[in-house]
Amino acid sequence: MVNKKPTSPPCNEPPEAAQTLLALMHAQGEVARLSEREQLFSSLLDSVNAVLWAFDWESRQVLYVSPAYERIFGRPAGLLLADYNEWRDSIYPDDLEYAERSLAEVLVKGAVEDREYRIIDADGKVRWLSDKCFINQQADNNHRVIVVGMAEDITEKKQLEHELQHLATTDVLTQSSNRRHFFDCAQEAFDSAQREQTPLAFLLLDIDDFKQINDTYGHQEGDYVLQRIADTGKAVLRRGDLFGRIGGEEFAAVFPGCTPQIAQQIAERLQREIQRLGFTHDDQRFSVTASQGLTGITEADESVDNLFARADAAMYQAKRQGKNQIVIG
User: Which of 42, 190, 218, 299 pairs with 124 at a CA distance of 20 to 30 A?
Assistant: First the structure.
């Protein structure tokens, strides 16, 4: 009887143990690749300086918020995930109504990309957010309305915009309105007075003998005089009045809703406060005076230019009559 060697399995079919081992190695490889992708995704989320979020509209529950939330809001994400009111409570009070209303607009528009509002972070600092939101078209399970969004911190951008606006509208030396901004605002006040049939007064003020001040005490001292006059004007005027430097030593004011009698009282107080100002240069003391022209709106006036012309004529009349006085035009 001939003994036969046991036949080996085909070389292209690994034994069952080997197959199991290969399957385990493949599974481990998939797990490793998944872990790598998760780590990459997590790293990307950590590096994005914007809050990604998802919100269930019906249940009023925040489903997801990215790591940037804790950096920007300074609050634990877990509190927000547990209670949607954490978001509401962080919004600057004056902006809450707009933030909620603009969020609700996504239900009608499908996307809202121009939302900007302020929040107060955990340190009490006010931050500006640009918060875009969209309806998640993929999330239609059980007809749930899922809103997703991205909130970006634009505080630095807003600060830069404010600084540029300030530079464009403010006289650098006196920190009052510059000529262009003053007349833009004055025209708006004039148009409003015409529509509502309310009084309005226009005042023009020129520092007397200002060239002599510059020649005697120097331009630096002259600049200081301009700054003190501007500070005095801003202190005397009422809330809502307009005040600006419109020329070298010339200032102007507009008093919306102000009767001629009240406007004259304000001008007289301004005159007294300017006379009280005292200056010292190299142990020499000196004071300044101003000539003012004051006028009020009439039915015949077509623009603020008419008021300016009358106030200008009145102010020059005050100069001719001896300076340091108010002339009504």
Answer: 42
